[in-house]
Amino acid sequence: MVFESLLLWAQQFITEASYFAVFAASAVINSTIFIGIIGGTYAIVLFAVGLGLNPLFVGLSAGLGSAIGELTGYMVGLGSEVSIEKYEKKIPRIIKKLMKLFTNVGFWVVFVAALLPLPFDVIGILGGMSKYDLKKFFIATVIGRIIRYVAFAYAGYSLFPFVKTFFD
């Protein structure tokens, strides 16, 4: 009963707000730290494509919203600057090495992590902790997430008749 109500609400929201709904839902889902809704953005993308929205625009909306949502992890890492200065000697070496990685190949680390279904919050926090350039972080995240969700939207578009049989 609750699940059906949620599905009806999501259908109405996506039908009325279209691509903005995909963007907003993706931003909210990805703005949580370590407690994201597993598969939430994928479900929104699949649902939107199933309702007939263009897969390219669904992927673009989800990718941009997701990238904006992921900035919360970066901000948490950036905000930990006081703690890092105070407890620098107690920070494990592995974290220090990962932070250094951002100075050498940060853009590619962020891009690949945004492209793959990995726990991206860790990358965002490390990026903020290492004071990696916010513009580069955001651009790499946007590119990775757009590729990821456009590909998924087209896959969902191709498979939706098959998937729809589970909902009928």
Descriptors:
mainly alpha; 82% helix; 0% strand
Describe it:
- This protein starts with a helix and ends with a helix.
- It has helices spanning 2-30, 40-50, 55-69, 71-79, 81-86, 93-115, 120-129, 134-167.
- Helix 3 crosses helix 8 and helix 6 (93-115) packs across helix 8.
- It is elongated and about 55 Å long.
- It is mainly alpha-helical.
- The mean pLDDT is 82.
- The chain has eight helices and no strands.
- 38% of the residues are buried.
- It has one domain (2-167).
The description of the largest β-sheet is: none
CA radius of gyration: 18 Å
SS content category: mainly alpha
N-end to C-end Cα span:
16 Å
Number of strands: 0
| Contiguous runs where pLDDT drops below 50 for at least 5 residues | none
Fold blueprint:
Blueprint: H1 2-30, H2 40-50, H3 55-69, H4 71-79, H5 81-86, H6 93-115, H7 120-129, H8 134-167
In short:
The chain has 168 residues and is mainly α.
